[in-house]
Hints:
By secondary structure, the chain is mainly α. It contains five helices and no strands.
Amino acid sequence: MVTCQGMQDYAFGDCLAVDLYKAQILDELGVNKKPTTFRKDRKWSDRISSTFMDQCKPCDKAVSSHVKHAVADTISNDPKNGLNNHKRNSIDALVLSL
């Protein structure tokens, strides 16, 4: 289980560094992941979907899968900087326990 400080509804995506992948989402899918619309207390995938809809872009299962793959691809290219410094505590604890 992943926990994120200060969030009630969270997912693994919340522990990732947004600045690392937001340009990829904009380049590949034409969606600007603006922090103001993304900071609501809902699951990461729900907030991604809302961000797409706010910008009049469809977000079905295929698009959602594409977004997750693009994020994973971007993070895998720079894993050292892949985690959000303020929300990485549960991932760091898992790594230490392994």
